[in-house]
């Protein structure tokens, strides 16, 4: 029987919150307004009703030209993916090298492309490439990036033939000079903006929404320069945390809802640093000062740091998944410790969905901290029941004799000494399609576990994200299609419980209205226009597809609730397809 999750939490440790330093207004009449504490009423649920089968994690086999063994392109995890990480440095003679190190710290936010742009002698220098930061940059490449200011970018994407030209930062020349930009997020009105610009003669080199921002800056007539950025951003809708570099300025900007994180720090020599997470500041020995506020533009030049309000906003809507999965545990995101958040999520699960067990394990790496919290609260030992390989790429040659669950076994190895004959609680951060979870459960049972109880440190994901996270379509999200009991039967666990959404918001306390829960509730702070995810799609991040391929619209409906007979039959068909 599936464990039923209760609706309230007891005896929980509050999340630690880092106070921001006192702010000195430089533009006192145009500072962002403090967010109100009152929650807003919920809108009707907006999801895509689905009758399509859940897509399998592993793509179709492709023949290897050198032998007869199939080549598998193995998707690393059945997880939502953060698409980008950005960094900006002003006023350090080793700006590009520090930028390189900061990108290393942000590598978890994107592994398929990296780039750095520096400025020296009034000229912007750029090096970009496909792969990890360590693959793209070496001593000779960094030597091509002189100057005391730089911006950098790492990205995740799906594969695409035109990948390299879409790797950021982008550099463009216009009538007043050159500008580089690195962007984390996704513009939901990209299609209409691009169509309008093209109607007026703009020519695009990429399919990235970031290029739209450069065109809007180029056609702006505002003076001085940073007001061009303000004018351009006033036309944008969606999520954007961006850093811009010109011949003499570094500019950081965050959208009015503050969907994606962006922090500011300072090195001992006075150099100003911006980054997606504080872990990047730690590596280059920069002291965290504060977040870039939602709706704020920060301009850094020889005269210091100036702050300008971009536009008014009702309240922030920061992405809660940063605390659930994306950010590193040692980061402070949206003013809160990610480690303390995840530990508290595990404590809630142990309180509200207890089960008799002998050992608590995690699905590494993202489930570890929540599992520690669960084990401590339950008074049961935490052990490493699954060992993750960190040295595996994305493409593998499978033996001619097919190995069951080949992709998962490459990444995760069960420890029989921990699992055999035990009642095991397995803590993971989320379930997306459910295909990986079913294979993990099977892996643990094959290692001799007597019982397997899954505990998920997030609420059920029922909606796609349009704010800079690569998630499947709503039709592919298993929680949008099945009840908790049906999911439990599908993945084969002895019990299953999710973190209740109301317990999550209770834990966040007065800050709860300032987070976006669209993937859990279907309530979108900014509704996308002219673009919807379908089965097999990922967000158009500029590496695949063209503007013509972006079509469709919203499907208004309610969460899928099918009859038990139909659901069970469909579930059996999907279980067969995922083997």
Automatic annotation (TrEMBL):
Origin species: Actinidia chinensis var. chinensis
Protein name: amidophosphoribosyltransferase
Similarity comment text for this entry: In the C-terminal section; belongs to the purine/pyrimidine phosphoribosyltransferase family.
Entry cofactors: [4Fe-4S] cluster
Pathway connected to this protein: Purine metabolism; IMP biosynthesis via de novo pathway; N(1)-(5-phospho-D-ribosyl)glycinamide from 5-phospho-alpha-D-ribose 1-diphosphate: step 1/2
One Pfam family linked to the record: GATase_7
Protein's UniProt keywords contain Iron-sulfur: yes
Alphabetized PANTHER family for the sequence: AMIDOPHOSPHORIBOSYLTRANSFERASE
């Amino acid at each position: 029987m599936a464990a039923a999750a209760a609706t309230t939490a007891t005896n929980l440790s509050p999340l630690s919150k880092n106070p921001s330093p006192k702010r000195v207004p430089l533009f006192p009449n145009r500072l962002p307004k403090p967010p109100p504490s009152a929650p807003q009423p919920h809108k009707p649920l907006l999801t895509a009703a689905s009758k399509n089968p859940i897509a399998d994690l592993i793509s179709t086999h492709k023949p290897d030209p050198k032998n007869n063994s199939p080549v598998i392109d193995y998707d690393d995890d059945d997880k939502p993916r953060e698409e980008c990480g950005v960094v900006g440095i002003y006023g350090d003679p080793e700006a590009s090298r520090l930028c390189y190190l900061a990108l290393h710290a942000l590598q978890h936010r994107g592994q398929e492309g990296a780039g750095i742009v520096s400025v020296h002698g009034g000229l912007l220098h750029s090096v970009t490439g496909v792969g990890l930061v360590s693959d793209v940059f070496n001593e000779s490449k960094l030597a091509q990036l002189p100057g005391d200011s730089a911006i950098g970018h790492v990205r995740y994407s799906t594969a695409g033939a035109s990948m390299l030209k879409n790797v950021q930062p982008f550099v463009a020349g216009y009538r007043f000079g050159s500008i580089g930009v690195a962007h984390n997020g996704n513009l939901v009105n990209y299609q209409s903006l691009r169509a309008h610009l093209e109607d007026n003669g703009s020519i695009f080199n990429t399919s990235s929404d970031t290029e739209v921002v450069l065109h809007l800056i180029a056609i702006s007539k505002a003076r001085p320069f940073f007001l061009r950025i303000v004018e351009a951003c006033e036309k944008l809708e969606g999520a954007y945390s961006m850093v811009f570099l010109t011949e003499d300025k570094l500019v950081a900007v965050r959208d009015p809802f503050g969907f994606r994180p962006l922090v500011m720090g300072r090195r001992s020599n006075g150099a100003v640093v911006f980054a997606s997470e504080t872990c990047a500041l730690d590596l280059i020995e920069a002291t965290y000062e504060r977040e870039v506020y939602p709706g704020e533009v920060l301009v850094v030049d020889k005269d210091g740091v100036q702050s300008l309000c971009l536009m008014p906003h009702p309240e922030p809507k920061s992405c809660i998944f940063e605390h659930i999965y994306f950010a590193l545990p040692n980061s402070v995101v949206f003013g809160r410790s990610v480690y303390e958040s995840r530990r508290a999520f595990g404590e809630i699960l142990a309180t509200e969905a207890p089960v008799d067990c002998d050992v608590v394990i995690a699905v590494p790496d993202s489930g570890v901290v929540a599992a520690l919290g669960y084990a401590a609260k339950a008074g049961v030992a935490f052990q490493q029941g699954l060992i993750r390989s960190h040295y595996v790429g994305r493409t593998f040659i499978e033996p001619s004799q097919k190995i069951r669950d080949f992709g998962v076994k490459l990444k995760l190895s069960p420890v029989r000494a921990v699992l055999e004959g035990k009642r095991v609680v397995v803590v993971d951060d989320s379930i997306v399609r459910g295909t990986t979870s079913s294979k993990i459960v099977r892996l643990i049972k094959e290692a001799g576990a007597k019982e397997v109880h899954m505990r998920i440190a997030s609420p059920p994901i029922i909606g796609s994200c349009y704010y800079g996270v690569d998630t499947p379509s709503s039709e592919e999200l298993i929680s949008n299609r099945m009840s908790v009991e049906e999911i439990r039967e599908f993945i084969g666990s002895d019990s299953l419980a999710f973190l209740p959404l109301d317990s999550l918001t209770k834990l966040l306390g007065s800050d709860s209205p300032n987070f976006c829960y669209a993937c859990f509730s279907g309530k979108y702070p900014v509704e996308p226009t002219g673009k919807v995810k379908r089965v097999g799609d990922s967000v158009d991040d500029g590496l695949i597809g063209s503007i013509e391929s972006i079509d469709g619209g919203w499907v208004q409906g309610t969460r899928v609730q099918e009859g038990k007979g139909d659901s069970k039959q469909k579930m059996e068909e999907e279980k067969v397809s995922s083997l």
